[in-house]
Amino acid sequence: MASRAGQVRPALGAVAIAAALGGVTLGTAFAVALQAGSFALSPADWAALRFTILQAALSSALSCALAVPVARALARRRFVGRGLLVTLMGAPFLLPVIVAVLGVLAVFGRSGLFNDLLALLGLPRLSIYGLHGVVLAHVFLNLPLATRMILQGWQAIPAERFRLAQSLSMGPGAVLRHLELPMLRATLPGAAVAVFVICLTSFAVALTLGGGPGATTVELAIYQALRFDFDPARAAALSALQFGLCAGAVALGWRALQAPGFGAGLGRRLAIPAPGGWRRAADALVIVLAAGFLLVPLGAVLWRGLWGLSDLPPGLGAALARSVSVALASTLLTTSAALVLALAVAARGSRLIEVAAMLPLAASALVLGTGLFLILRPWVRAEDVALPVTILVNATLSLPFVYRLILPQAQAMQADFGRLADSLSLTGTARLRWLVLPRLSRPLGFGAGIAAALSMGDLGVITLFAGESGATLPLYVHRLMGAYRMDAAAAAALILVAVSFALFALFDLWGRRAAS
Amino acid sequence: MLHLDHLLLTEPGFALSADLTVPKGARVAVIGPSGAGKSTLLNAIAGFMAPTAGRILWQGADLTALPPGDRPLTILFQDQNLFPHLTVAQNLGLGLSPRLRLSADQHKAIDRALDRVGLATLGPRLPSQLSGGQQGRAALARALLRARPMLLLDEPFAALGPALKADMLDLVSEVAAETEATVLMVTHDPTDAKRFADQTILVADGMARPPQDTAELFQNPSQALKDYLGS
Questions:
Q1: Which residues pair with B56 in a beta bridge?
Q2: ipTM rounded to 2 decimals
Q3: What is the pLDDT of residues A379-401, one digit of tens each?
Q4: B224 lies within 8 A of chain A by CB
C-alpha cells in the first residue's frame, strides 16, 4: 500500500515478463515432453548423455585445478601488464565460441603450431578431435572465468589476516592451511558448478571438435536428430533429457551459482605476501604458461585472419548485418526485461520473480530451439522465423547474467532514494528518466554490452533454423570451416571478434559516460 | 489538524500505537529512546509504511490509502534528501513537477527559493559540491517550494555541528511560518525540542503519547521521560 502509485506498473510488467520467461523456458520443455511421449532412447543417446557429463566434469575439474595456481600467482605478484592480463581474463566469456575453436585448431590442430613442434621433435602428430579436443577448448574458454572467480576470493581475504599471519611468522605452508584453503573451499564450488553448467550445454565446441559416436553431447545429438535425421520425436526426447540434466545441475548448484562470475574490484591493491625463491620462479612460469595458453591461439587466428582480409568471401556483409541486427534486438529485449525484473525485486523482493529471472540457467539453446521448432512447425517454415527465434533465445539465455549485474545496484538505489522518489511522486517514465537511468546506467551499459557480445557470437539455435542463405556471422564462419576454407574462416572470425568487442565496448562506454 | 486515529504500526518484534491529534500550525518535537519508533511513526504518516490498524487523517480527510507523493506533506530524511546525479536546481524542480517540465515562472520560483535559503548562485551545482549544511538548506528550499501543509523532519540535521544545527532549526521555523506548515520533528536532543517546539510527543514503551506543552513536559517529566533522560 505504501508505494501503491507508480509501483503497480513495473510490478505488472515484471509479472508479465516473468510469465513470458516461464513460458519460453518451461513452455518449450513442456512442448518437447509432449512430443517425446514414450520415445525410447537408443544406446547412442545414452552414450551422448554419458559423454556430456564426462566432458563437463573433466572441463570443470581441469579449469578449476589450473585456475588455482594462476589466480594465486596473479593475486600475489605485481608486474607490468598484470592489469591488462586480468582484463583479458574477462574476454573469453565474451569471445564467440567458434573463434575460440578456430584458435585452438590453429595451435593444436593437425597443421597447428603444437603439432608442427611435435613433428620437429620426431613425434607423431596428435588429433584434436574427440574428447580431449572438446575438453581442451572448454578449458581454454573457462579457465579465465574460473581464474577470475578464484582471484576475487583471494582478494576478498582481508589484508589484516595476511598481516596477522606475518606477525605470527607463518610460512607459506601455514598461510595456505589457515587462510587460503578455507577461501578455496568457499570459492571453488561456485567456480566448478558454473563451468560445469556452461559445459553441459556446450554445442558449438562439440559441433566442431566432437561428433561421431564417442564424442557427441546431448545438445549436439538434438541438432543431428532434427537437422540430419528429421526425427522430431527423438530430438524432443533428447531435449527433455537435456532439460532435466541442466535443471538438475542448476538446482543442485543453486547456491554456488548465486555469485556472479565477473565483476569489478579486481584492481584493488592488497598486501598479499609474495614469497621469493623458487616460488617466485614458479609463479612467473605459471603466469607465462597461462598467458601463452590463452593468447597464442587467439593471436594465431587473428594473425591468420589479417592475411585473409584482402580476399573476403561473398555473403559476409549480409551475415554480418544479420548478426548485428540480432545482437541489437536481443540486447534491447534482454536489458529492458532484466531492468524491469530487477526493479520489481528491489522494490518488493518477490521470490517468484527472482526464480523466473534465473530460470533460463536451466535452459539451453537447442532445447529452447527444439521446443520453438515443434510449436511453430505447423504454422511457419523454420527459415522464415530463424532471426526472430534467435533473438528470443539469445535474449532469454543472457537474461540471468544481465539481471544479476543490475540487481545489486537497483537494490542500492531503492534503499537510498526509493522513499525520496515516492515522496516526490516520481513515477513511471519520469522515475525512469530522472532516477533509474542515471543511477543504473553503469550496470545497464555493462550488461547490455555482455548481452550484445554473447548474442553476436552465438552459434546455437540459428543452426536449427537457418536456411542456406540466412546464416549469421558465426554460422557463416562455421560453414567456411566445414568447406575447409580456413583462411576465409579466420578472416570472417577476425571481423566477428572485432564487431563483438566493439559492441561490448560501445555499450559499456555509454554506461560509464552516462554515469559520470 | 493531524489525527492519528487508533493507529497501530507493527513490524516483526515491534509494535507502536498512537491515538492523538496535532493542532494545525503546531511545531511538535518527537522524542524518545532509539528504537522506540520515532522514525517509524513519521514513515507511516508519510506513507512509506502501511498501518496494521487505524487511520491517519488530515483536516478530516483520510490519508491512509494515499501514495506518499499525494499526501499533504514534505518529509526530510536523515540523509539522501537530494538526488546526487541532478543539480541543486533540478532537485528543487522535482518538488514542483516530477517530469521536470518547468515553466518560466517555476524557474523563477526556484531561484527565489534558493535565494531565500542563502544558496542564490548554487543552483547549477551538484549536491556533492555542497557542504552538509548547504545540502540541508537545499532540501528546505524544496520544502518551501512545495509548500505542503505538513513538514516532517526525521533528524535531517543530526550530522551537523551545534551552531549549524541551530541555524538550520531557525530556518525551519521561518520556512514553517512562511508556508503555515504543521511541523513534526524527530530529535534525540532535548535542547532541540526546547528550542524549536512548543509541543512534544514522547514515544516510548510501544506508544506515542499525545503532544504536551514542551516546557511543562520537561519541568514535570513522567517516569518514561525520566528513564529516557537518565535524570
A1: B4
A2: 0.88
A3: 988 888 899 999 999 999 999 98
A4: no
Let me know whether A80 and A15 are in one domain: no
Residue A8 has pLDDT above 80, yes or no: no
For the record, the C-alpha cell of A511 comes out as 554506461
Q: Are residues A417 and A474 in the same domain?
A: yes
Same domain? A366 vs A506: yes
The total number of structural domains in chain A stands at 2
Residue position matching grid coordinates 513519521: B42
Please report residues of B whose CB lies closer than 8 A to that of A435: 83
Of B62 and A468, the structure prediction assigns the larger pLDDT to B62
Residue A210's CATH number = 1.10.3720.10
Nearest Cα residue to B123 out of B84, B85, B82, B89:
B89
Q: What is the mean pLDDT of residues A20-32?
A: 87
Contact A422 B67 (CB under 8 A): yes
- The reply to whether A358 and A489 lie within a common domain is yes
Residues of A in contact with B100 (CB under 8 A): 430, 434
Are A416 and B80 an interchain contact pair (Cβ–Cβ within 8 Å)? yes
Residues A200 and A324 in one domain: no
Of residues A177 and A372, more confidence is placed in A372
pLDDT per residue over A220-236, tens digit each? 999 999 888 888 888 88
Q: pTM of this prediction?
A: 0.85
Contacts of A352 (CB under 8 A, 6+ apart): A18
Q: Is A307 a member of any domain?
A: no
Domain segments of chain B as ranges: 1-45+149-231, 83-148
Q: Are residues A210 and A326 part of one domain? A: no
For residue A236, being part of any structural domain is answered with yes
Mean pLDDT estimate for chain A = 86
User: Which amino acid belongs to residue B191?
Assistant: T
Flag if A1 and B65 touch (Cβ within 8 Å).
yes
B208 three-class SS: strand
Which residues of chain A neighbour B49 with C-beta distances below 8 Å? 2
Same domain membership, residue A71 and residue A11: no
Burial A419-454 (b: 16+ CB within 10 A, else e): bbbbbbbbbeebbbebbbebbbbbbbbbbbbbbbbb
Residues of A in contact with B67 (CB under 8 A): 2-6, 422, 425
Range of the domain at A400: 1-34+313-516
Domain B1-45+149-231 has CATH 3.40.50.300: yes
**In chain B, where does DSSP find H-type helix?**
38-46, 88-93, 104-116, 132-146, 162-179, 190-196, 214-219, 223-229
Beta-carbon separation of B100 and A430 below 8 A? yes
Residue with cell 605459471: A286
Judge whether A302 lies within some domain.
no
Residues B143-177: pLDDT tens digits?
999 989 999 999 888 888 888 888 889 999 998 99
> Do A186 and A62 share a structural domain?
yes
Testing the interface with A: which of B43, B48, B96 to mutate, by most A Cβ within 10 A?
A: B48
Minimum Cα–Cα distance from A415: chain B residue: B80
Instruction: Find the range with the poorest average confidence among A302-316, B44-58, B60-74.
Output: A302-316
Asked if residue A466 is part of any domain, the answer here is yes
